[in-house]
Amino acid sequence: AQSVTQLGSHVSVSEGALVLLRCNYSSSVPPYLFWYVQYPNQGLQLLLKYTSAATLVKGINDFEAEFKKSETSFHLTKPSAHMSDAAEYFCAVSDGTGGYNKLIFGAGTRLAVHP
Amino acid sequence: NAGVTQTPKFRVLKTGQSMTLLCAQDMNHEYMYWYRQDPGMGLRLIHYSVGEGTTAKGEVPDGYNVSRLKKQNFLLGLESAAPSQTSVYFCASTALAKNIQYFGAGTRLSVL
User: Fold this and answer.
1) How does pLDDT run across A30-64, given as a tens digit for each residue?
2) A75-78, long-range: CB < 8 A, 24+ apart
């Protein structure tokens, strides 16, 4: 069975500081991995995805994530936080089309950005 | 460019009442999903559909029913609402050969 663990339900950074949101996964098959962002009172938007191509994945708004098979991790980073990055972030894993693209989500990490 | 549209956006029910949540997508996607979001638990899959006329159970299907009579619509029904079903419900869809799910804006449901 697949599962996702996000370390830290709340992360707080200063504007301009590095953002690091941690995600570890468990999967019996080569995983597809995703990061989604949810702004207040909105649906989820895709930030980036890993589907077995390059291990360093770049997404929107200067976010990126690195797939590390040996560590079963897919941590999300951004070099310099902006106030507009304040949101909840979800890591998710999928079997891909073999599993009908069903997603298993982590519990989420709420990012706060302070001036 | 509507994408995935959910109606209603908000609803308050009394225990035992029934209701149907509607999800409509205009992207001709084959797969559709219903999730519920609860604090500290992320999103959990309720039911999903891989095509018109087909549905399957997800992780937390009890107390819900679904139907997909048309490819573009996926309905989620609560026959007898319970306070434990107070949640935010999200619909999503994806194309057959793609891996990205597109989400609606959500329905906030309170059951008193």
Assistant:
1) 889 999 999 988 889 999 999 877 889 999 999 99
2) A75/A20, A75/A21, A75/A22, A75/A23, A76/A19, A76/A20, A76/A21, A76/A23, A76/A35, A76/A47, A76/A48, A77/A18, A77/A19, A77/A20, A77/A21, A78/A18, A78/A19
